[in-house]
Amino acid sequence: QVQLVESGGGLVQPGGSLRLSCAASGSIFMLDVVGWYRRAPGKQRELVATVSSSGGTNYAGSVKGRFTISRDNAKNTVYLQMNNLQPEDTAVYSCNADGLLGTRRYFDSWGQGTQVTVSS
């Protein structure tokens, strides 16, 4: 079993910043691709950014240049630095990770999510 715990959400004014964290724990042999997703009220979940085990990154067009995803492999933690936040960034942000367990079986897990609200 792999547990993903997100933190760092909250209320911020437009133009402000937040840093989200996604900490993975459990019997992890290898943490592969980790992604941040978000779901705004009344909308479908969308990909925000991903980072591979080698550090390669991918961003949704709407956040490119404002958000930065990074990872600390020693801590099995992935971060999402969000700058210049706008009201349309308001959503529940969740992380997803896949990789291999200590048993070398594949896993794909989701966290519970953290609320980000951008409002004046």
Describe the protein's architecture and organization.
With 120 residues, the chain is mainly beta. Helix content is 0%, strand content 60%. The chain is built from no helices and 11 strands. The chain has strands spanning 2-7, 10-12, 18-26, 28-39, 46-51, 57-59, 67-72, 77-82, 91-101, 106-110, 114-118. Strands 2, 4, 5, 6, 9, 10 and 11 form a 7-stranded mixed sheet that branches. The protein has a 4-stranded antiparallel sheet with strand order 1-3-8-7, with no helix packed on it. Strand 5 and strand 6 form a beta hairpin. It is elongated and about 50 Å long. The N and C termini lie far apart (40 Å). The mean pLDDT is 97.
Largest sheet features: 7 strands, mixed
Poorly predicted spans? none
How many individual β-strands? 11
Distance N terminus to C terminus? 40 Å
Rg for CA atoms: 14 Å
* Residues in helix, %: under 10%
DSSP helix count?
0
Decide which structural class fits the backbone: mainly beta
Q: Tell me the fraction of residues in β-strands, as a range.
A: over 45%
Mean pLDDT: 97
In short, what is this structure?
By secondary structure, the chain is mostly beta strands. The protein has strands at 2-7, 10-12, 18-26, 28-39, 46-51, 57-59, 67-72, 77-82, 91-101, 106-110, 114-118.
Highlighted features:
four-stranded antiparallel beta sheet; 60% strand; seven-stranded mixed beta sheet; elongated; mainly beta; 120 residues; 11 strands
Topology:
Elements: E1 2-7, E2 10-12, E3 18-26, E4 28-39, E5 46-51, E6 57-59, E7 67-72, E8 77-82, E9 91-101, E10 106-110, E11 114-118
Parallel strand pairs: 2-11
Antiparallel strand pairs: 1-3, 3-8, 4-5, 4-9, 5-6, 7-8, 9-10, 9-11
